[in-house]
Every structure is written in structure tokens, then in C-alpha cells.
Design goal:
40% of the residues lie in helices and 13% in strands. A hairpin with a 5-residue loop joins strand 3 and strand 4. InterPro entries: DUF4559, NACHT_NTPase, P-loop_NTPase.
Length: 1064
């Protein structure tokens, strides 16, 4: 029968009594769990010798362990002295490594029992005082059990992340809060607990016992949760209550003997409760037991109804407050985004001229990218709706795009559309929402936008949300509560996190941490330049889906929108649009149309009648135009460079406003270079005023701010102000100009920067492209350094694309002599015309050559070494002149030079260092000259999937892989360098394959056109794959079984009647 636990006259004293009982039951519920996990800890730390005492393993003196007076020996070591034991020292070190604070309580433990009693290891994680004589987990107290779970990091694997987040000793750690409950109850001054505190105690203890990792399935923890529920709701029998109070009194006595400190009030109250309950048992137990069932049920029902009403009222109040908080946060975020994120600069020429993104946004050209097993990115279908991004079950979404392709515009448009879904200010139609559908965005109750370039010293997304959003939309005294509300919301609703500019994030980690963000409620969209996603630390498994943004689908639509923003209402927009398109065609600038940033730059320049100097598709010309215009904003003085003297760079020749400001431009360019190549990545893009003043004088800084080259942002304090270049490509343009003016820094600075990380050349790829337009000699030198770091590039031939872009920039600026270095080649129809020019310069340093997906005709040849053609000269003896009129790299040039009839010759006569050769095609575009492959002495990997006749492989002494298609014909006995061969795939005819000569074979795949000599494969080959194609094992012809036996190292005579079991 249930009994009333109100045995004291004072209600808050009764509450304290319940709390004390709850602690004891919680400890009992955790006991079996801790015993089990200590066995696992014992296995982890290893087995000791069993002979060493703890005193033998601790040097004397050791702080917090040894107790030594001036005239007395150490009371800890006594007669036992330190000695070295390799086995026990290792166990001791392992115990220490598992201690969260590296401070085990050595005085508690008996090292000679480590191998047989896990508890002695567990005692190392107890508090230092009061536990020496405690013999088991069962004999320990609540504080001891919780201390083990807190101090031993093994328990991180046994409880949920939420249980230890934030990690101890942070007072907000849930397990720390549980330990504090024990302290508050034991050390109370008045033995009183309020109703609110008691409910808080029950909630925290029950939550711990129901931890979802292990404890929710533990029988003892389950029983303890049931008891706590009974105690909380007064469902304990009077007899059980008496037993429990006696047990509590015994624990109190034991704890006092062990040195545990209890308040005198707690001790007196427990004794008073024991006397009171014993009296009740003697005097009224029979009377209580004789109560009618109906009356008892009535009381319990009324009590339960009251409790339910109280709980319901409390829940409703809490829910109301939560709903109000959610609505308030949503409203604040939308207002903040509409004031900041969705307002984008119309052009890099004037960042103060910003406009709502929906007014100029045009359809983006986005494709889904398939990430193959080898890391290669293959373009797939184009996407047109938000549902293509967010409704495929993808959680980690990445959008990559080259500089100026519109990544940030896409993010801003996404934020705008989300705001308009939840708080419409215009009618949402499909015409207005060019990319996306309202139904898709409604699934996101919240959207948290993060600018990664502004997160200089932060590594966690939740921290960024706090500083970039919470701190800006709430008053300081509301920060903590608002942040807690945001974290609570993340556990209850579906939301989207947009991280803009991964390549601009200065964090040391490869990606911001998403710890603390529930996976099942969150989708993360991250924008980045492609080079950042090439970081080998980003695993394919971390990218659920990758999209590639190529720019604008409809440049004409975009130009019309921009013109409407630039011109007054009386202007004839259609007429001006036609005139602008004629201008682009006449200046060969159509290639800029797909880039929102470059397109608006050209368009704004044309509208202002300052486009006379844009004569071709040169990035340096475009950015010089930008520089010219921003210089005019800060200083309208006009001065020209003397035509009889060399200007700093060719593209400055016709400028009016650059020369008067050259002193400032040089200083700003030096600062741009210094920050980008700084060892402190966190300040490469966003930096403090103090750091900037180390590079710029006050007048140069003011010029940079007035012109708009630099932007400054205010912080909470004047000392928190940060600065950055108006766009990363502007900073890269100026950094390249500084290298041009100071070419010696390539050896003095850049070489060291490149050596610090073998992938760091990707960081400066855009700088290199600009340098090709400024100074081809410096670019040639830098390309040689970068090429040395990309000898075996495995990611999409990123460096080849960089060199090709640099080559086009060089040609556009008519710079000579071109001598860019490249060792790894992948020819395709899209790049063949330009890439062959680079190939001619680098034949002797070529390390790999891949040809596939060709619509042009490729002729693989080997010219005589006495040929006088410049193509056959060693690199260094010849360089390419700049080609006249080289337009943008497209497949639709009017001169037809990129048509399908283009003929390209690949001369291999000087490829003495070629290690990999792949020739693959679908049609008949590749022809291989007889003996073209002779002389490739260092060749290791050969793949031929084209028509090749009379191939002789006998020259390849180092060959490791052969993969030959059926269209290849081999000379007899041409395979004779068996020693290094590891992988063989022959789909062609070959007579006389000698298996006995293989020494390192790992994989072999042959067709029935290959005849094997009667010599079995030696067993020392580590072969992992055997594949026979087109063999008939069920026919009367036993050639298939014969070959199978030879490949498995068996005697074919003895296997005449054997039928192998092949995988289904």
C-alpha cells in the first residue's frame, strides 16, 4: 500500500528527504552500468604484472600524492621505493591518458590488484579524499559513481553527446549538474528543498538514467527510474520507506567514517526522520493497512488530478513562452536578413550602390555533379528548382563555382525567398521566384545564414550563429536566453544552415564543426570555390551532393535587369540592351556574360561611357577598368603614363586615374599580397586595423577606403573594427600586381609558402592567372614551382585548368615568351587547341598523358630526333609567341578553328619522362603511328582503348600496368618485362603469355584470345583478382579450365576433370 512520505511537519524538509532517497536510488541504478564499463576500461589499459604496489610506480616526491615532513619520511611511500616496471608503467600511463584532467588519484588505488579487480582502476578516477577503503562500486556513494563517469573519458562512448556537452568542468555540463545536486543535498545548511528544486532534481536524475546510448536498456537503471517515479508521486509503502531510511542512515554513517563531509543539520534530520517513521510503523501501520480500497483510490485519484492540472498548467505556460520566443526570433531574423543579406552590390565599381537581390537576379546555370569512386567529378543533369537541392534526402549540400560566378547571389536569393515564404512582402509567383518553389522552402521553419569570411576565430557553426545573428538582433542582456532558445529550436524543427564562402574561411580545420546540431532536423548548404573542395581532407563521404554553378543561364535577361537599375525610367531599355550586346561582340567580350560579377563590371563601365579601353577578354583589362574607376572616386586628378616610357603593366597604358595614385596602389598591393600569403590564415581576408597599419600609412588607408578597394565593418567596440578587400578577386589582382613589381619575392616568399603545404598552389591559382597577364616571365617561373607540387595530381586536373587559364590570359594580353610548365595532361575536345600549345613546350617533362572524349583528330607520332621542327626541341630552347586574336575559349568560334575537323599531333619523341599513357576513344579519332611508343623508357602505366597496330611492349622496362582493348594488336613475344608487372588486362590477341615469369602480379584479366604457355603462375605472387572473359567452361574444349588452373598455380594435367566454382 502506498504511504505518505511527508513524515516531517515542514514540507521543504520532506522535499529534502525525498531528494536524499532519490540520490541513493540513482546511484543503485548506475552501479551495474559502471561495473560493466570498468571491465572495459580494464581491457583498454592492459594487464599489469600484479607484483608492483602503487608506491613502486610513483616517484617521490610527487605533488598531491607524497606527504613528507622536514624530519620525517614520506608517509605515502613509507618503506616502499620507486622502481621501474615497463608493464605496469604502461598501464599507469594508459590510466592517466583516460583521465579527463590527467590527474588520477593514485593514493586511492592498489596497483597490485589492477589485473584482477577493475574497481581498483576505477578508484583512480575518484576524488582524492575519502575513498581509500571503499572496496567496490556498490560500497561507493553517489558522488563517487558520478565522479568516475565524469573523470574517465571512456564513459564518453557510453553516454550520449548531450550528456557531456559542454564538456566538464563546464558547469553547464548535464553530468556536472547531476553531481552538483548530490553536493547540494549532502552539504545543505538547513535540510530544505523547494518544490521547484525537487522537480528539477527528479528531472535531471531521471534523464541521466534514461540516457539513450546504454542506460535506457539497463535493467537496474530502468528499475531506478520506476522507483524515482514512485517516490515523486508518493507511491512507496510505509515499510519500504522505513527500510530505505535505515539504509540511508547506514550510508550516512559509512560516509562519515570514510571522511565525507555532511552538514550537522542533514545528520540530525535523518535521525529525526528515522525515529518518526518507526513510531508511525508501530502505532499506525495496522490502521493504515485497514483503509478501504475505495477511499484510498479516491485520494490517489484526486491527488493525481491535482498533479495533472498543475503539470498541464506549467506545460501550457512553458509552451506559450516557447511559441512566443520562436515567433519573435523568426521575425527578428527576417528583418535582419532583409536589411543585410538580401541587399547585394550592383557592381564591384560601387559597393554603396546596393539593391535587393530579386531585382537583378537571373536564372543560374547549375548542374549536379557525380563524385565517382576515384574522386573524379562528372557533370550530370541541370537543376531548376529548390526541390532538386533539398528534397533528395541530402543533408550536406555543396555549391561550387569559380570566382564571380554568382555563389553569394544564389545564397542571397535563397535567403530572400525564404523570408518571403514566412513573411510575404510581395506576391510569391513562379515568375518572381526564378529558382525555387514555395512549397520546398516552407519545410524550413528557420534559416541561419553564416558568412564564413567573417568567422575569423570560430570553428563551430553554433558559435558563428551566436556571433553573427544572435548578437546582432538581440540586446546584450538577452544574448544567453536567445542562444538557448535557438539551440532548443534546432532540436524541434526543420531548419537550413547556409554557409557562404568556404574558401574564404580562415579556420585551421577543413570544415566548420557541426557538433551540437541535430542531424535529423538540419540541412547545410555550403558555397565554395572548387579548389577548396579539392582538399584531400574533405572526404567524399562528407559531401552528400555537389552542385556546380557555371554562371547565368540567360545573360540577356540579367543585362536587362541591371540596365533597369542603372538607367532612369525614360530610357529605351530594349535599344540600350541591343547596343550593349553589339559592344560585347565588337570587343570579343561575350565570354564575360556568364559571370554576374564580370558582366556587371563591363555593363556599368559601358553605361558610364568608360569602356573604350576594353579591347578583349583579358581579366587584367577588366580589373584595370575597375581600378581606374575606383581611383577616380578617391582622387579625380588626371595623368597619363608617358607613351615613350614603359608603364607598370601594359593594361595601364590608357588609364587616366591610375598614375596619380600609383604610390597608394603599390602600398595597397603589397598589403594584399602580405595578407593573402600570411602564415596566419585567420587574417588573410579579414584583418584588424592594427594589422593593416603595419602595411599602409594613414593616407594610403584613407585612399583605399574612399576608393572602395577596402571596406570597414564596425564591431561592438571601436577596437573590434575589421577590414577586408571589397572582393577576394580584387585582392588577388592587386597581389599579382605586387609580384609583377617585385618578382624576387617568388623565390624569397612564395617558394616557402608553397612548400608549407603541397596543395597550397591552389590558394594562389587566381593570383597566378592575373600574373600571366602582367608578367609572363614571373608567371613562367611560378608555374615551374607549382608544377613540382602537382606531379601526381588526382583531382580533376585542377592545375592543368589553372595553366590553361593562365595561358589564355597571357595570349589575351599578347605577352611573350610563353613558357609555362605542366607535367600532367588530359586532352579532351574542350581543351585540345590550347593544351597542345602547352604540350609543345613541355614534352620532355611530361609525366602523364591522357586522351579521351575527343571529337578532334589526334595523331600520336614519333618524329625523328633530327627533325628541325621547333616542336621537337627541348624545353628551354623554344617558347611560344602569343597568338593574335585569341578569343574566349568556346566551341562556337566564328573562324571554325575549334570545329570537329581540328587535327592535333602529339609527338612523343622527347617524352623521356612519361610514366602514364592513356589513349581512349569511342569513335576513330585517335591514330597511333607505328613505333610511336618506342622510347618511352620510364613508362609504368599503359591503357590503350583505340586502334593501335603492331605495338611492341618489350621496351618498357618499368611497366607496372597494361590495359589493352581488342582494337590493339601486339607484336609476338612483345611482353617480356614481367618482373614489375602488377596489373594486366588483355582484351586483344596475344600468343605466348608466360605466367611463370610474373613476380609481383596482383590482378589479371584476359580474354579467350590470349594463349597462355603451359607454365603455372608462381604462388608467391600476391594476386587478388583473376577474371577470364569470353571463356566457355561448359564446352568440350577444356582450354578454359586449362587457363584457370595455370592462373591458380596448379598443374593443368592434374586438373583435367576439374570444373572451377566461379562467383555468381
Amino acid at each position: 500500500m502506498a504511504a505518505n512520505t511527508n513524515i516531517f511537519t515542514e514540507k521543504q524538509t520532506n522535499n529534502w528527504f525525498k531528494a536524499y532517497i532519490a540520490l541513493n536510488w540513482t546511484k543503485e541504478g548506475l552501479t551495474d552500468f559502471v561495473v560493466t564499463e570498468l571491465l572495459n576500461v580494464q581491457k583498454t589499459v592492459g594487464s599489469s604484472c600484479g607484483q608492483c604496489f602503487i608506491q613502486n610506480l610513483i616517484p617521490c616526491p610527487t605533488q598531491d600524492v607524497c606527504k613528507k615532513g622536514k624530519r620525517t619520511n614520506c608517509s605515502f611511500h613509507n618503506s616502499l621505493q620507486y622502481k621501474s616496471c615497463q608493464t605496469c608503467d604502461k598501464v599507469k600511463q594508459n590510466i592517466k591518458s583516460l583521465h579527463r584532467f590527467n590527474g588520477p588519484s593514485w593514493a586511492n588505488t592498489k596497483a597490485e590488484r589492477w589485473a584482477i579487480d577493475p574497481w581498483e582502476i576505477g578508484k583512480c578516477y575518484l576524488p582524492r579524499d575519502g575513498y581509500i577503503s571503499v572496496s567496490s562500486v556498490q560500497a561507493s556513494d553517489f558522488n563517487g559513481v558520478i565522479s568516475i563517469m565524469l573523470n574517465c573519458t571512456h564513459f564518453q562512448t557510453c553516454v550520449s553527446t548531450a550528456c557531456l556537452s559542454p564538456p566538464p568542468p563546464d558547469k553547464q555540463c548535464p553530468l556536472e549538474k547531476v553531481r552538483q545536486i548530490g553536493r547540494d543535498v549532502r552539504h545543505t545548511a538547513n535540510c530544505k528543498v523547494t518544490d521547484a528544486d525537487l522537480q528539477y532534481f527528479f528531472l535531471k536524475l531521471s534523464t541521466l538514467l534514461a540516457d539513450p546510448v546504454c542506460l535506457v536498456h539497463d535493467p537496474s537503471a530502468t528499475e531506478a527510474r520506476r522507483k524515482l517515479s514512485d517516490l515523486q508521486n508518493d507511491r512507496i509503502s510505509l515499510v519500504d520507506l522505513g527500510k530505505l531510511l535505515k539504509e540511508a542512515n547506514q550510508i550516512l554513517t559509512q560516509a562519515k567514517e570514510a571522511g565525507e563531509r555532511f552538514s550537522e543539520e542533514a545528520e540530525r534530520t535523518l535521525k529525526e526522520g528515522l525515529d518518526a517513521i518507526e513510531a508511525k510503523i508501530l502505532a499506525g501501520e495496522q490502521s493504515i493497512e485497514n483503509k478501504t480500497q475505495a477511499g484510498e483510490q479516491s485520494i490517489e485519484n484526486k491527488t493525481q488530478e491535482s498533479i495533472n492540472r498543475i503539470k498541464q498548467a506549467a506545460n501550457e505556460k512553458e509552451l506559450d513562452e516557447y511559441d512566443r520566443g520562436v515567433a519573435d526570433l523568426l521575425s527578428r531574423l527576417i528583418d535582419h536578413y532583409r536589411d543585410t543579406v538580401i541587399c547585394v552590390p550592383l557592381s564591384t565599381l560601387n559597393h554603396s550602390l546596393d539593391i535587393k537581390v530579386q531585382d537583378i537576379y537571373a536564372k543560374p546555370k547549375i548542374h549536379r555533379m557525380e563524385i565517382e569512386r576515384d574522386g573524379k567529378h562528372v557533370k550530370q543533369e541541370q537543376i531548376y528548382k529548390y526541390r532538386d537541392c533539398f528534397c533528395g534526402g541530402f543533408r550536406r549540400i555543396y555549391l561550387q563555382g569559380e570566382p564571380g560566378s554568382g555563389k553569394s547571389y544564389f545564397a542571397a536569393k535563397l535567403v530572400h525567398d525564404w523570408c518571403n515564404v514566412h513573411a510575404p512582402i510581395v506576391k510569391s509567383t513562379k515568375e518572381q521566384m526564378k529558382f525555387g518553389d514555395v512549397d520546398t522552402l516552407q519545410k524550413f521553419r528557420f534559416l541561419f545564414f553564416i558568412s564564413l569570411r567573417d568567422s575569423r576565430e570560430q570553428t563551430h557553426a553554433t558559435q558563428m550563429i551566436k556571433t553573427q545573428l544572435i548578437y546582432k538582433i538581440y540586446a546584450e542582456d538577452e544574448w544567453d536566453s536567445a542562444y538557448k532558445l535557438a539551440l532548443k529550436i534546432m532540436k524541434n524543427v526543420m531548419y537550413l544552415v547556409v554557409q557562404d564562402g568556404l574558401d574564404e574561411w580562415p579556420g585551421e580545420e577543413v570544415l566548420p564543426s557541426m557538433d551540437g546540431i541535430p542531424n535529423d532536423h538540419c540541412i547545410v548548404l555550403t558555397t565554395s570555390r572548387p579548389w577548396k573542395l579539392a582538399d584531400e581532407r574533405i572526404r567524399n563521404s562528407q559531401i552528400d551532393v555537389l552542385f556546380d554553378l557555371e554562371g547565368i543561364s540567360d545573360p540577356k535577361e540579367f543585362n536587362e535587369k541591371v540596365l533597369r537599375c542603372l538607367l532612369d525610367e525614360s530610357a529605351d531599355i530594349k535599344k540600350r540592351l541591343n547596343l550593349f550586346e553589339q559592344f560585347l561582340s565588337s570587343r570579343n567580350l561575350q565570354s564575360t556574360s556568364s559571370s554576374p560579377m564580370l558582366n556587371t563590371l563591363v555593363l556599368c563601365t559601358w553605361v558610364d561611357d568608360r569602356a573604350q579601353r576594353l579591347t578583349g577578354p583579358s581579366l587584367c583589362e577588366l580589373y584595370t577598368t575597375l581600378l581606374e574607376n575606383v581611383c577616380k572616386k578617391a582622387n579625380s586628378q588626371i595623368s597619363y603614363f608617358d607613351p615613350n616610357q614603359t608603364s607598370p603593366v601594359k593594361c595601364f597604358n590608357q588609364t587616366m586615374y591610375v598614375k596619380p595614385n600609383m604610390k597608394h596602389i603599390d602600398a595597397i598591393a603589397k598589403a594584399a599580397f602580405s595578407f593573402l600569403l600570411s602564415n596566419e590564415k585567420e587574417s588573410s581576408l579579414v584583418f584588424s586595423d592594427i594589422h593593416l597599419m603595419a602595411h599602409l600609412s594613414p593616407t594610403a588607408k584613407q585612399f583605399a577606403l574612399d576608393s572602395g578597394l577596402l571596406s570597414q565593418r564596425k564591431g561592438k567596440k571601436c577596437t573590434d573594427q575589421t577590414l577586408s578587400f571589397v572582393h577576394k578577386t580584387i585582392q588577388e589582382f592587386l597581389a599579382a600586381f605586387h609580384i609583377h613589381r617585385n618578382a624576387d619575392i617568388i623565390d624569397d616568399v612564395i617558394s616557402g609558402y608553397l612548400l608549407r603545404n603541397d596543395k597550397s598552389y591552389r590558394d594562389i591559382s587566381q593570383i597566378f592567372i592575373f600574373l600571366c597577364g602582367f608578367n609572363i616571365s614571373a608567371a613562367n617561373k611560378l608555374s615551374a614551382m607549382m608544377n613540382e607540387l602537382d606531379v601526381y595530381s588526382e583531382y580533376g586536373h585542377y592545375f592543368q585548368d589553372c595553366i590553361l587559364s593562365g595561358y589564355k590570359e597571357t595570349v589575351a594580353n599578347k605577352n611573350t615568351p610563353i613558357h609555362l610548365h605542366l607535367s600532367n595532361y588530359k586532352f579532351s575536345s574542350a581543351n585540345a587547341e590550347d593544351l597542345i600549345q602547352i604540350w609543345k613546350l613541355n614534352t620532355s617533362r611530361a609525366r602523364s598523358l591522357k586522351v579521351n572524349d575527343m571529337r578532334s583528330n589526334i595523331h600520336v607520332t614519333r618524329r625523328s630526333q633530327y627533325t628541325s621542327s621547333a616542336d621537337c626541341h627541348e624545353p628551354g630552347q623554344v617558347a611560344l609567341p602569343a597568338r593574335e586574336g585569341h578569343g574566349p575559349s568556346t566551341l562556337n568560334d566564328e573562324d571554325g578553328v575549334r570545329s570537329s575537323t581540328l587535327n592535333i599531333e602529339l609527338d612523343l619523341s622527347l617524352c623521356h619522362n612519361l610514366e602514364l599513357l592513356t589513349l581512349a576513344e569511342i569513335g576513330d579519332h585517335i591514330t597511333v603511328q607505328l613505333h610511336a611508343l618506342v622510347g618511352l623508357k620510364k613508362l609504368k602505366y599503359l591503357r590503350l582503348d583505340c586502334k593501335c597496330e603492331a605495338i611492341d611492349l618489350s621496351h618498357f622496362e618499368h611497366i607496372q600496368l597494361i590495359d589493352l582493348n581488342k582494337r590493339v594488336t601486339l607484336l609476338p613475344l612483345s611482353i617480356n618485362n614481367y618482373k614489375n608487372l602488377q596489373c594486366v588486362k588483355l582484351d586483344t590477341t596475344y600468343d605466348g603469355l608466360d605466367l611463370s615469369l610474373f613476380e609481383n602480379l596482383k590482378s589479371i584479366e584476359i580474354s579467350n584470345k590470349v594463349k597462355v604457355l603451359p607454365k603455372p603462375l608462381l604462388i608467391h605472387n600476391k594476386i587478388t583478382k583473376i577474371e577470364l572473359n569470353d571463356f566457355e567452361f561448359n564446352s568440350l574444349n577444356n582450354e578454359a579450365i586449362y587457363t584457370w588452373c595455370l592462373l591458380n598455380g596448379a598443374d593443368p594435367v592434374q586438373c583435367a576433370d576439374y570444373t572451377p566454382v566461379l562467383p555468381s
